[in-house]
Amino acid sequence: MISLHQLTKVYGQGPDAVTVLDKLDIEVQAGEILAVVGPSGAGKSTLAQCINLLERPTSGQVIVNGEELSGLPESKLRVARRRIGTVFQSASLLSRKTVAENIALPLEYLGVTKAETNSRVNELIERVGLSHRANHYPFELSGGQRQRVGIARALALRPSVLLSDEATSGLDPETTRSVVQLLRELRDDLNLAVVFITHEMDTVLQVADSAARLDHGRIIEQGRLVDLLTNHESALGRALQPNLNPSAPLPGTRSWVVTYDSRDVPADWLQRVSSELGEPAALLAATIQSIDGVSTGNATVGVSNENDAIVKDAFARHGLRASLPNVSRESISISSVQNSAQKEAALWA
């Protein structure tokens, strides 16, 4: 597991000091994926660098499996840092090295024997599904395959924590789904604590168990994904709801945006609401998913009844929140983070 306690990062001194991270408290258990989202300038890049200790926090603690790492002397920090594997937006592969050679780099930095290195590399290549690409060079790989190599390399030193820093940014939807599925499988198989930093809200729904929103260096909101999605008062929960492209309502009806506001929404809620209103409510669009065995999501429904209170009450009796679509969905835009192979190499040294 990894725990951040009162993590603070300040650049500069005196009146020119800028607090980029302000007393963050985050905990990710082994076998859990926490997604961190937030607007551009929120401090996500600095957070990533403080988690893998490429930047030392000004104050606070980074604790991995019960050991506080941020206060260690440099000689011990180099060893401790290996417990945290990092996957960057750019896989940062060396162009003149093959897939196998790129994955072997952290092991070679440590002087691991060739036999042990080959065994570990073969194991990782098979785990990420690239056995048939072991001797290929980065230019011969797709974007998703390059990220799989980056993931394998991040796991080379057997870390207990995996930091994914915009690792799916720029990938097409299908490739993103395959990379996310791989991360979930690795989380389960290796019992990893995963911190997943992203600007892709749809990806959060695919990968995360919990989520946190970072803004102006502070954690504004965090919680289990299912709790956020079933809490209409949660700004992060609303932002995570998928966008819908509903059909136009029939003449004489109005469109209502309906969100799951409870863990106990019946599967036949549309029929029940129709019965209570005395009219067939028309389903214009819907995205429903199951998270931790709980149905969550939103829908657009056409209703002719003009009494807003009656309509809202009919939905509310079944754990649904209904509103007229006069406010657009909140979006959280996230800037991408650029990284280099030299920067990643500092994590292994």
Automatic annotation (TrEMBL):
One MF term in the entry's GO annotations: ATP binding
SUPFAM superfamilies: P-loop containing nucleoside triphosphate hydrolases (SSF52540)
InterPro entries tied to this protein: AAA+_ATPase (IPR003593), ABC_transporter-like_ATP-bd (IPR003439), ABC_transporter-like_CS (IPR017871), MetN_ABC_transporter-like (IPR050086), P-loop_NTPase (IPR027417)
GO BP term (any one): amino acid transport
Segments forming a coiled coil: none
Assigned GO CC terms: plasma membrane
Record's keyword terms, sorted: Amino-acid transport, ATP-binding, Cell membrane, Membrane, Nucleotide-binding, Translocase, Transport
Domain ABC transporter: 2-241
PROSITE patterns attached to this UniProt entry: ABC_TRANSPORTER_1, ABC_TRANSPORTER_2
SUBUNIT field: Homodimer. Forms a membrane-associated complex with FtsX.
Family: Belongs to the ABC transporter superfamily.
Biological function: Part of the ABC transporter FtsEX involved in cellular division. Has ATPase activity.
Protein name: ABC-type methionine transport system ATPase subunit
Organism: Neomicrococcus lactis
